[in-house]
Amino acid sequence: MGEPTAVGHHGHKQSLARWLFNPFQFVAGATALCAGLGVMLATALLASATGVHFDGVLDCHFADTGAPRWLHLGEVIVGWACMGIILTVCGFLFSRSSFRIVDVFGTQALARAPYLVVAAVSLLAPVRNAVGELAAAAQTGDALSGIGTGAALLAGIALLVCLVMGIWMVALMYRAYSVSCNLKGSKAIGSFIAGLIAAEIISKAVLWHLYRVTG
Amino acid sequence: MKVLPTRCPACGDALKVKRMVCRSCQTELEGLFALPALARLSRDEQRFVLDFVKSSGSLKQMARLMKLSYPTVRNRLDEIIGRIKTCESELSEAEG
Fold first, then answer.
1. Test the A interface: residue of B50, B75, B79, B81 with most A CBs within 10 Å
2. pTM for the predicted model, two decimal places
3. Is the Cβ–Cβ distance between A195 and A87 less than 8 Å?
């Protein structure tokens, strides 16, 4: 009687590219959920320190500090929960496989890791100053000539980082959905895009209500 | 041991067994015998099925052994189930 020999025969290559773009082949369920919640908590803490608001599933806005810390955490959680709920519904509608809800929510939580990088980048004082200058110049209607070249360059780099991280996050969210609900091809892409749009709208509505209630 | 081919290398259709022989008395049996569904799976798929049975059907244990996530292993199992169903329908078509 021998132990199953799966490792030797089925071992999948754990390359860096796989870990970057489809880590859910290797991690899902409760492990991903715990790691994802940790990432979201860290993101919210950094965001509250720098005034970044992740107000929606995909949204990321630089604003003044001063909002309560729980509000930043609430924004991150609302974005994640809306996406998790909508994709779970999509999974039930479109997947022929049985799947676990903890996989959907766990992988979606971990897929938000790129926004931790955004929050970390905004922690850098020069970036914060540059974005602040750009925002102030925009308010006076003098956005192009109102700020220095260095500040404009830094603000541009910060926005580029946000864009790249946003794209990476959407790619991770799609992979997470595809793996956890066993969906591929046009059915997966179509339902994911529809789900993403629906989750974005719902999260905006929930956050609008939250802002109204809390003043 | 040579690997048992299950598909025709020329046209890709499922192969059947035509002749069998007893190694003890050399009795030969000739006919047209269909391969069972499990024998038609690829080597990797057969290995997965064997390891899955040895793991008492535990996907969690399979995921640990394969160093893959639970849904990835479950998706692989679903793929193999689909392949077995296709093989079975091919078999029943051939019999019918």
1. B75
2. 0.84
3. yes
